[in-house]
């Protein structure tokens, strides 16, 4: 057994010499695997404040946040102005035109309407009744007790000036246009379904449930302004 070991000892020493000669060279036969990976350089895309790997990012955080806040503020400002412009455009589109606004207000010269004369005007697409009442008709309509009225309302509450009755000429039943100086009470009569109104425009007979509507108006001197 010892003779066999002595026989292979020269070969073993030869292996040692070959291995030591190889390891002593500069160009080694092995290398590390991670050296094959080429890491991209992102330095040109980085901010100067953080490009240096040795610098502390906390030292430049305020400046970087300031830029972010400024960009965010500019974005929100632009969005708000855009929203404001869109809302203004929508409101202007939905607003009534100049023609509609002109029709929303009407002025009437009352000096041109004789006593007991009834006139019809167009206001906001509806007939507007103006009646110059006589003293006798005023006394008669104000003597009626409220207890017998379907829609109780005093005559004084429906007029600004006792001589002038101003109402919308649309029947409160189904929207027909009544006729003046007609009916059982000397006021208005609706020929569609037989509603009767007195000279104060109050419903007295027939299917009309309420009195004729009184619009907002003012009387200054001889000028009636409706609207």
TrEMBL record:
UniProt remark on cofactor binding: Binds 1 [2Fe-2S] cluster per subunit.
Keyword match Repeat: no
CC cofactor: [2Fe-2S] cluster
Gene Ontology, cellular component aspect: mitochondrial inner membrane
Record membrane topology: Single-pass membrane protein
Gene Ontology MF annotations: 2 iron, 2 sulfur cluster binding; metal ion binding; quinol-cytochrome-c reductase activity
Primary location class: membrane
Domain Rieske: 128-226
Keywords of this entry: 2Fe-2S, Disulfide bond, Electron transport, Iron, Iron-sulfur, Membrane, Metal-binding, Mitochondrion, Respiratory chain, Transmembrane, Transmembrane helix, Transport
Gene3D superfamilies recorded: Rieske [2Fe-2S] iron-sulphur domain, Ubiquinol cytochrome reductase, transmembrane domain
EC number assigned by the record: 7.1.1.8
Presence of keyword Mitochondrion: yes
Similarity comment: Belongs to the Rieske iron-sulfur protein family.
Additional notes on this entry: The Rieske protein is a high potential 2Fe-2S protein.
Descriptive protein name: Cytochrome b-c1 complex subunit Rieske, mitochondrial
């Amino acid at each position: 057994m010892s003779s066999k070991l002595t026989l292979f000892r020269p070969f073993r020493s030869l292996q040692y010499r070959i291995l030591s000669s190889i390891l002593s060279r500069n160009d080694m036969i092995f290398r590390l695997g991670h050296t094959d990976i080429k890491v991209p350089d992102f330095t040109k895309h980085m901010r100067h404040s953080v490009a240096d790997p040795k610098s502390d990012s906390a030292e430049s955080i305020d400046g970087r946040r300031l830029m972010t806040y400024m960009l965010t503020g500019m974005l929100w400002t632009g969005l708000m102005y855009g929203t404001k412009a869109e809302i203004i455009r929508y409101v202007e589109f939905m607003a009534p035109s100049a023609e509609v606004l002109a029709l929303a207000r009407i002025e009437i010269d009352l000096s041109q309407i004789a006593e007991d004369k009834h006139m019809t005007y167009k206001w906001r697409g509806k007939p507007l009744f103006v009646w110059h009442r006589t003293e006798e008709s005023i006394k008669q309509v104000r003597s009626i007790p409220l207890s017998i009225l379907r829609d109780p309302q005093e005559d004084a509450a429906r007029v600004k000036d006792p001589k002038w009755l101003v109402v919308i000429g649309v029947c409160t039943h189904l929207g027909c246009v009544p006729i003046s100086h007609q009916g059982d009470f000397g006021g208005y009569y609706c020929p569609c379904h037989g509603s009767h109104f007195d000279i104060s425009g109050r419903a007295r007979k027939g299917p009309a449930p309420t009195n004729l509507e009184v619009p907002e108006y003012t009387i200054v001197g001889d000028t009636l302004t409706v609207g």
